[in-house]
Structure formats: structure tokens, C-alpha cells
Design brief:
single chain, alpha/beta, 12 helices, 14 strands, 20% strand, elongated, binds iron/sulfur cluster
Length: 358
């Protein structure tokens, strides 16, 4: 690790302890430093008065604590959802969403700028993959959401979902490092079981999660129960076919002894028929699972519409007949472009310029 490029949010506790030792300081100071940063919101070493003065000076010279800039912020009309377009140091922008409802706060963060996966109903897909996020940039989004909660006088953030822009398993190492930093007991101390990683079905990543016994929740975006239908909605299905994906999910569930969440964007006339519900019910037999049914968030350049409430309920009833538990998710924040990538794609150019020049 180069001393001149110590990015604060990129450092795990282990990284920090190693750095302190290399400077001749006891590693115990790492925990205090993390408490300053993640619990008290103090990022300037000058203000970390409980650290020795000579260490504060050393940190001051070596650490950078780049903050994300808020390019745009919108709030849903029900007040429960806030969506942020956050600027990175190179001018790229990512979306972060804070959902705060009945004392439960969840941050939905991005793992990439854009996405290479090309799902037809997703605004982020229209950007293509611009670049991977670093672990520090993923962590910073959570820090941003937590700061908003602190300013609102709300309890600390407890839940994180990696369901924003990007495919987390296509940026595996950075995502796992970020999760390690978020779970650090001296820092934000988010429980791994309060973190959910959502994938479109990147089979090698699912196998790796199981083999490494990563203790986070897994959500798999399924959207169709036959290979032919799925390949139309989710192009990666051509590389990772449905039967192999379900086999990988069974491997994961068996090895981890955990259920898997399956996401299903309900699109009127496309994947919401009784027949598809029955096919899904059969496909998931014997696999510990929970299906989240999410009426589609309409986007520009895709003419799919959300399934009506009665159709969603009928779909759910058929899953129940197959003993598959499911939830129909409320489309909270539909009025603030709640689907991932919508704000980034739809933000007017003048706002982008304002962000880049900040
Ligand atoms: S739905 Fe997720 S995986 Fe698919 S293109 Fe959008 S961000 Fe990528």
C-alpha cells in the first residue's frame, strides 16, 4: 500500500493496523480511528484528539478522505424514499437510495457505474458499463446515507442492499472488501445478515459466495421461469442458462444452509400469467426460497408496464399453492424514478455539468 494514496474509506481495519505498524504505532489505534470516522463522522485526523499528536500528523499527511458530492437529491411524495445522484472524483455519478420507513432504514447502493448486463427493462443497462466502483466508493455511499439519517435524528443505518446500479458479482473483489469494511465492529458494525447482494445470475460468483461462505443474503433476479423467456429479458441468461443457474442456487442453499430471495419484476402480459407462476412454483420445488414480486418501474425506451394488483395477487396465490412463500413489494418511490439508473439517465445535462464543476 502506497503511503501517498491512503484513501480513508478504502481501508479495512487490517489495512489500517498494518499501516500503523509500519509507522511504528501500536495497531490498537486503528479501532479508535474507525470509531471517529464511522460513528462520529470525524474524518479529519486533526480532530481525532484521542490519538497521539504525532500519529495525527502522520495521518494528516497520508490520508485522503474524498467525499461524494450530491449532484441531485429527490424525495418521494410519501417522504419514505430519498434518492441521491452522487458524484465521484472523476466526474462519474452513481445512484444511492435511502428508504426510511417505520423505524427501519435501508440503503440501496451501486456497485458499478453503469452495467454490462443489458436487462431490457433497466435504465442502468442503457448506460453500458462505464467503470467498476472501488470498495471505498461503495462504502462512501453507505456513509452518505447514514449521515442523512443522523441529520434526521434517526437511529443508525442497519440494512444495506446492493441493488443499485451495476451487477455486484461482476465487481466481486471490491464488493466483498466493501462488505468487510461495513461489517467492521469498530466502524458501522452492520450485521452481514442485514446485507443483501442481488445478482442477475452470475453463476461463477454464486458458487464463489458459497465456497467462501460469505454470510450475506443472496437475491437472484429471475424474472422468467423458462430459458427462452428469460433470455429475452435478461441477456446474461444466454451465458448462464436457467437450468445451470438453478443448480448453482441449490448448491448455494445447501452449502450455506440458507434460503435465497428470488426477484421477479412483474411486467403486464410478459411474465405475469398464471402459467408462468405455476412454472416458477415447479422450478423452485425443494429450494429454500422467498420470491419478491415487484411490479415493474416503467422507464423510458422500454414499453413494458407494471402488472395490475389483482394479477399480482393471482400470481402470488399460485405460488402459495406450490408452497413457495412470496411478497408483493410496494413500489415505494415510483414518483421519484425508483428503478436503478433512472435518475442517472434522466438527469438533465445542466445538472451533470454542475456536478462535474463542483
Ligand atoms: S437490472 Fe441490474 S444487472 Fe440488469 S442491467 Fe440493470 S443494473 Fe445491470
Amino acid at each position: 500500500m502506497s503511503e501517498s494514496s491512503l484513501s480513508l474509506y478504502q481501508l479495512s481495519r487490517h489495512d489500517l493496523e498494518q499501516q500503523l505498524c509500519s509507522w511504528g504505532f501500536p495497531p490498537i489505534h486503528a479501532a479508535r480511528l474507525l470509531k471517529y470516522v464511522y460513528r462520529e463522522g470525524i474524518c479529519s485526523p486533526r480532530e481525532m484528539y484521542e490519538l497521539p499528536a504525532v500519529l495525527r500528523g502522520r495521518l494528516e499527511d497520508a490520508l485522503t478522505a474524498d467525499e461524494l458530492t450530491t449532484c441531485s437529491e429527490i424525495q418521494s411524495s410519501d417522504g419514505f424514499t430519498r434518492k441521491y445522484l452522487l458524484g465521484l472524483t472523476d466526474g462519474c455519478r452513481v445512484e444511492t437510495v435511502l428508504m426510511h420507513f417505520r423505524g427501519r432504514a435501508t440503503a440501496c447502493v451501486s456497485s458499478q457505474v453503469g452495467c454490462a448486463m443489458g436487462c431490457v427493462f433497466c435504465a442502468t443497462a442503457q448506460m453500458g458499463l462505464v467503470r467498476q466502483l472501488t470498495a471505498g466508493e461503495i462504502v462512501q455511499q453507505v456513509v452518505h446515507a447514514n449521515r442523512v439519517l443522523m441529520e434526521l435524528g434517526a437511529p443508525q443505518l442497519r440494512n444495506v442492499v446492493l441493488m443499485g446500479m451495476g451487477e455486484p458479482l461482476h465487481n466481486y473483489d471490491a464488493v466483498m472488501k466493501a462488505i468487510g469494511i461495513l461489517c467492521e465492529p469498530a466502524g458501522l458494525a452492520i450485521g452481514p445478515r442485514h446485507i443483501t447482494l442481488s445478482t442477475v445470475g452470475v453463476i461463477p460468483g454464486i458458487i464463489r459466495l458459497a465456497d467462501e461462505r460469505q454470510p450475506v443474503n443472496l437475491a437472484v433476479s429471475l424474472h422468467a421461469a423458462t430459458q427462452e423467456e428469460r433470455a429475452k429479458l435478461v441477456p446474461p441468461a444466454r451465458a448462464w442458462p436457467l437450468d445451470e443457474l438453478v443448480t448453482a442456487c441449490r448448491y448455494y442453499a445447501e452449502k450455506m444452509k440458507r434460503r435465497i430471495f428470488f426477484e421477479w419484476a412483474l411486467i403486464e402480459g410478459q411474465n405475469d400469467s398464471e402459467e408462468q407462476a405455476a412454472t416458477l412454483g415447479t422450478l423452485l420445488q425443494g429450494l429454500p426460497s422467498h420470491v419478491n414480486l415487484i411490479p415493474l418501474n416503467p422507464i423510458a425506451n422500454y414499453d413494458g408496464l407494471p402488472t395490475s394488483n389483482p394479477s399480482a395477487k393471482r400470481f402470488q396465490a399460485i405460488l402459495a399453492e406450490h408452497d413457495i412463500p412470496s411478497t408483493i413489494r410496494q413500489r415505494r418511490g415510483i414518483d421519484i424514478a425508483a428503478g436503478c439508473g433512472q435518475l442517472a439517465v434522466e438527469t438533465p445535462p445542466q445538472q451533470r455539468v454542475a456536478c462535474l464543476s463542483e
